[in-house]
């Protein structure tokens, strides 16, 4: 991608600065990263979709190049301020992974006139509680965090979210795995600074308002994701009339990093079949 096409910088929001990158022209496509990642999660998609869309990716507060800051904040309010700061007022396609997907759905429900399609990647609606036991490895993560061994935390979380259930480290792409580890380790280094207090995006969680989503919705899951995320995908498919579900084999919680070409084809087909940009 040529530097002429790419615009990057920081938007000042309260006491924080959010790093962003914009490229391409056309319908805006906003990419929101997972809570174990930053905007680099979308390296492949940012370049691919910039050929047909105006792509926007950014580091949420406390991730990547967006340092944490003192004070209360909401990730969704930050997104609103970012889009306004970039003068993006037309309806967007919003694609979020994991925590970013939950926030993207909250945004779509809160500002329906600003969203024309929603892509949920390895995500769940905010507030959704399911009777599914946690993986035992989460207890190991908590123990490592309490002991201050953040390298081990990052490795264990990479095993959970990148390797996934039923796959070993030697069965995944080592370059992408290394990137996920680095993004997560940086997020942990921001977290331990203890700056800022994150508030819920909305007063009313999304899980029991899914019938209000009257836009095209694509649910994407990797077959090796956690049991909760797989169940959440089925829940959304059942509750959202417009929803289509796509399962990517040999992928876990960040399927776009596991199988980028299959992921991109699926998103492209979904959007073009609904005559959305491109």
Would you mind describing this structure in some detail?
By secondary structure, the chain is an alpha/beta fold. It has a single domain, classed as 3-Layer(aba) Sandwich (Rossmann fold). Helix content is 37%, strand content 19%. It contains 9 helices and 10 strands. α7 links the parallel β9 and β10. α4 runs antiparallel to α5. The longest helix has 18 residues. The model has no long low-confidence stretch (mean pLDDT 95).
Question: What's the short version?
Answer:
The protein has helices at residues 43-49, 75-85, 99-110, 137-146, 150-163, 174-191, 227-239, 255-258, 260-273; strands spanning 7-13, 16-23, 28-32, 54-58, 72-73, 92-97, 115-121, 197-198, 217-222, 243-248. The chain has 278 residues and is α/β, with parallel strands linked by helices.
């Amino acid at each position: 991608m040529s530097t002429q096409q790419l615009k990057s910088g920081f938007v000042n929001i309260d006491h924080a600065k959010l790093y962003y990158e914009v490229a391409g022209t056309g319908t805006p496509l906003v990419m929101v990263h997972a809570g174990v990642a930053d905007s680099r999660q979308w390296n492949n998609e940012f370049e691919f979709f910039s050929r047909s869309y105006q792509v926007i990716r950014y580091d949420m507060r406390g991730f990547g190049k967006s340092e944490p800051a003192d004070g209360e904040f909401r990730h969704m309010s930050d997104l609103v301020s970012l889009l306004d700061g970039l003068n993006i007022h037309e309806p967007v396609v919003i694609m979020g992974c994991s925590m970013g997907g939950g926030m993207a759905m909250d945004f779509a429900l809160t500002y329906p006139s600003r969203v024309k399609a929603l892509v949920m990647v390895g995500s769940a609606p905010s507030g959704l509680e399911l009777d599914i036991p946690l993986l035992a490895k989460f207890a190991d993560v908590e123990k490592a965090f309490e002991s201050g061994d953040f390298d081990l935390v990052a490795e264990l979380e990479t095993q959970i979210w990148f390797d996934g259930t039923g796959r070993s480290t030697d069965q995944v792409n080592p370059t992408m795995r290394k990137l996920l580890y680095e993004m997560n380790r940086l997020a942990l280094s921001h977290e331990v600074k203890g700056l800022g207090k994150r508030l819920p995006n909305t007063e009313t969680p999304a899980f029991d308002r899914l019938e209000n989503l009257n836009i095209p919705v694509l649910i994407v899951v990797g077959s090796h994701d956690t049991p909760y995320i797989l169940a959440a995908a089925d829940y959304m498919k059942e509750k959202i009339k417009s929803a289509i579900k796509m399962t990517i084999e040999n992928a876990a919680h960040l399927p776009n990093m596991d199988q980028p070409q299959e992921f991109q084809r699926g998103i492209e087909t979904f959007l073009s079949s609904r005559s959305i940009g491109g």
